[in-house]
């Protein structure tokens, strides 16, 4: 088989066979195919696209490029949850305990963040003593014992994706439905769960800017998951303003705890209950998503979900006293308020600007080598639709570097727009794709 022939075939709009896809994925992962040839193929795929069968074969080849986790020793239907990324998205820390409290085993591998804020693993490491790297046997035992464990994703999961994505990032070939879908789903399918729930964001702070593109991506991924024998459900949700009020690692963990105590912002509570309800349905503990939602609401209200979070923290070596003592989290040195200079209603909070401002305060990474300031971030005192009086605090920026905090304030204040009349409420849950 010849790489030149494969590039030519796709450049001319041909359909690649399974053997050809397996050949270039394996060859590139092993370093036998040079970057310049893989770049040419990626550009050909970008313009000529792949059909559903090609995309499935690409996903499968990338999945099989490394370890495929075996979770058969865990009792019950294991359900994974994945978000395509957003600003202030701390739902895993809420939905995992809720679903686990309803009897759904959560054995999840999560990543670190690159960009706006830390990933789920970074957030969990804001909890003193919490271990995100544990042996496979302990991971399985924890899920069987407490119903929940979340660990860092190893480099052995879909290594082809890591290498191909790095090349896509520098060759302007990221924005392609087949390549995006295969990238996400190869990792999810290799992680070993029986069912997958996807939160596909759309809007200003999301990778998919439009509702139509988000729905298309969601459908691609649902089809890929189902074709692989995994029950897969996607929820298309709004990311035109940050989710919740907290953006930044310690701040987001605290908001997650407050949500499990029943004190969370309306949007994060609604989304978490929706996602958890779908996970409960996918895990076979409810006959419908609606019944799953009701079950999720019950364990949130009666404290069982909060107790499950405590078990989760303790199981992985963390100090569960943080649930009632937020001073145990990494503490900021500096804070600065953003003050409204006018009366009116908050008409818009540009999620992307807030995300970047939070990153620049220290809450996110520009490169993989950057160290995160776990105390840094932005807390929104006002959300879209809230009435504002001149002189009120719109948001507060936190961090341990005064210059970074001041720079973040300058950026974040540009995210707010105002109107004289109360704006329409943003629709959070836009579509569910079964």
From TrEMBL:
Superkingdom to which the source organism belongs: Bacteria
Gene Ontology CC terms, in alphabetical order: cytosol
UniProt KW tRNA processing keyword: no
EC number: 2.4.2.2
Gene Ontology BP terms: pyrimidine nucleobase metabolic process; pyrimidine nucleoside metabolic process
Keyword annotations from UniProtKB, A to Z: Glycosyltransferase, Transferase
GO molecular-function term, one example from the UniProt record: thymidine phosphorylase activity
Domain called Pyrimidine nucleoside phosphorylase C-terminal: residue spans: 345-419
InterPro entries assigned: Glycosyl_Trfase_fam3 (IPR000312), Glycosyl_Trfase_fam3_N_dom (IPR017459), Glycosyl_Trfase_fam3_N_dom_sf (IPR036320), Nuc_phospho_transferase (IPR035902), PYNP-like_C_sf (IPR036566), PYNP_C (IPR013102), Pyrmidine_PPas_bac/euk (IPR018090), Pyrmidine_PPase_CS (IPR017872)
Reactions mediated catalytically: uridine + phosphate = alpha-D-ribose 1-phosphate + uracil; 2'-deoxyuridine + phosphate = 2-deoxy-alpha-D-ribose 1-phosphate + uracil; thymidine + phosphate = 2-deoxy-alpha-D-ribose 1-phosphate + thymine
Role description: Catalyzes phosphorolysis of the pyrimidine nucleosides uridine, thymidine and 2'-deoxyuridine with the formation of the corresponding pyrimidine base and ribose-1-phosphate.
NCBIfam families according to UniProt: PRK05820.1, PRK06078.1, Y_phosphoryl
Subunit and interaction comment: Homodimer.
Family the entry assigns: Belongs to the thymidine/pyrimidine-nucleoside phosphorylase family.
Protein name listed in UniProt: Pyrimidine-nucleoside phosphorylase
Species for this entry: Clostridium aminobutyricum
Native organism taxonomy: Bacteria, Bacillati, Bacillota, Clostridia, Eubacteriales
């Amino acid at each position: 088989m010849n790489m030149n022939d494969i590039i030519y075939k796709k450049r001319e709009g041909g359909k690649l066979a399974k053997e050809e896809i397996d050949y270039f994925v394996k060859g590139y992962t092993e370093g036998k195919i040079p970057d310049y040839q893989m770049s040419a193929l990626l550009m050909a795929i970008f313009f000529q696209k792949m059909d559903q069968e090609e995309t499935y074969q690409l996903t499968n080849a990338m999945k099989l490029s490394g370890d495929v986790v075996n979770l058969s020793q865990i009792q019950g239907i294991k359900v994974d949850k994945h978000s395509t990324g957003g600003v202030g998205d701390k739902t895993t820390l809420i939905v995992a305990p809720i679903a686990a409290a309803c009897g759904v085993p959560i054995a999840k591998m999560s990543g670190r963040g690159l960009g706006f804020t830390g990933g789920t693993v970074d957030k969990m490491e804001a909890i003193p003593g919490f271990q995100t790297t544990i042996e496979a046997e302990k991971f399985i035992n924890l899920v069987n014992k407490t119903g929940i464990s979340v660990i860092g994703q190893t480099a052995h999961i879909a290594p082809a994706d890591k290498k191909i994505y790095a090349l896509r990032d520098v060759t302007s070939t990221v924005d392609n439905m087949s390549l995006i879908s295969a990238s996400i789903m190869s990792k999810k399918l290799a992680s070993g769960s029986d069912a997958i729930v996807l939160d596909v964001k759309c809007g200003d702070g999301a990778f998919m800017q439009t509702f139509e593109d988000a729905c298309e991506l969601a459908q691609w991924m649902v089809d890929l998951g189902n074709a692989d024998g995994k029950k897969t459900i996607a929820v298309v949700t709004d990311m035109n303003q940050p989710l919740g009020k907290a953006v930044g690692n310690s701040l987001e963990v605290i908001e997650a705890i407050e949500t499990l105590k029943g004190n969370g912002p309306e949007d994060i509570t609604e989304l978490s209950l929706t996602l958890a309800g779908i996970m409960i349905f996918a895990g076979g503990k409810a006959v419908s998503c609606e019944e799953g939602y009701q079950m999720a609401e019950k364990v949130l209200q009666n404290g069982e979900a909060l107790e499950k979070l405590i078990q989760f923290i303790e199981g992985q070596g963390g100090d569960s006293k943080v649930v009632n003592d937020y001073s145990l989290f990494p503490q900021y040195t500096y804070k600065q308020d953003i003050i409204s200079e006018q009366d009116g209603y908050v008409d818009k909070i540009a999620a992307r600007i807030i995300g970047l401002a939070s990153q620049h305060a220290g809450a996110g990474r520009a490169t993989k080598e950057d160290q995160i300031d776990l105390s840094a971030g932005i807390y929104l005192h006002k959300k879209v639709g809230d009435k504002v009086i001149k002189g009120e605090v719109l948001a507060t920026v936190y961090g341990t570097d005064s210059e970074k905090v001041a720079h973040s304030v300058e950026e974040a204040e540009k995210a707010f727009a105002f109107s004289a009349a109360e704006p329409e409420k943003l629709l959070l849950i836009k579509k569910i794709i079964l």
